């Protein structure tokens, strides 16, 4: 069992209508349905809805641990074995009713694909609603759901530390769509957990490396704090929580070291033999443009240990060519 802390996101529960008499913020799955994790002696059947890069890494990790994993996406034939492909559109209720297998755990890891309001609503509002409508009307429901969200749901921009209890104040359609998806998940009669990831990087995700190599400027006056997590730790966090008998409602998924943008770019530039980035003002007062520093204390307390605890270990692996990005 994972030693998870007894805390909850009160604002989300109140907004979602999630019943408060379901416990003190921790969800206990030790007696919930068939298919205990390998830690409990039996493997689980797991469905990953939106089985892209993170979902595929998670699925392969779970297969290594003895789970049977189904990967659902529009074109699932490209998924590597031993993942079991399910080609389906998650907004198509009738198609999901016909094709989705019965499982113990569902991970919703859909990506919007495009930075457009319609795409975000389709992924995090329409898709979530359609999938839950299917699952909630089944005789045998999953014993738990996981929703992969983002720290963009928080509105902090003054550089302060935040945790899972910080108020949700999304800025723009992306965060608003994610909050709507979170609330629908937590309102479901099926126990659900939200995992808010930040700044995913890893194999094939070289945006910041390209900027550092090109000698791009960075936001240094005032300093802008950034948060991140390596793709393999995204998968690791989800696999870890799936293996827990008791979990909280919400977790922040970031590494141990929120860092100033300039610090990370200077570190990368030094290893790329590139010119040091020029520190510039980014045109916003410190109270609005300094970003946020996300705490992973709750996740750490659950027993998770990071493969890449800071950007240094993670980017060193990326620069050395470790791993591949899954299509």
Q: How many alpha or pi helices?
A: 11
Q: Tell me, what's the shape?
A: globular
| Helix content, binned percent | 25-40%
CATH class: Alpha Beta
Q: For the record, what is the CATH homologous superfamily label? A: NAD(P)-binding Rossmann-like Domain
In total, how many domains does the architecture comprise? 1
Radius of gyration computed on alpha carbons = 20 Å
* Average pLDDT reading: 88
Please report the distance between the alpha carbons of the first and last residues: 34 Å
How would you sum up the major sheet? Answer: 7 strands, parallel
CATH topology: Rossmann fold
Structural class: alpha/beta
Q: Could you give the count of β-strands?
A: 17
How would you write the strand order of the largest sheet?
A: 4-3-2-5-6-8-14
Output the helix-strand order: HEEHEEHEHEEHEEHEEEHEEEHEHEHH
Uncertain segments are 3-24, 29-41
CATH-scheme architecture:
3-Layer(aba) Sandwich
Tell me what portion of residues adopts beta-strand conformation.
15-25%
Task: Give a description of the structure.
This protein is of the alpha/beta class and 327 residues long. The chain has one domain (10-198, 229-255, 295-308): NAD(P)-binding Rossmann-like Domain (Rossmann fold), CATH 3.40.50. Helix content is 33%, strand content 20%. The protein has eleven helices and 17 strands. Helix 2 links the parallel strand 2 (45-49) and strand 3. Helix 3 packs across helix 4 (117-136) and helix 4 (117-136) packs parallel to helix 5. The longest helix is centred in the middle third of the chain and has 20 residues, at 117-136. It is globular. The model is unreliable at 3-24 and 29-41 (pLDDT under 50).
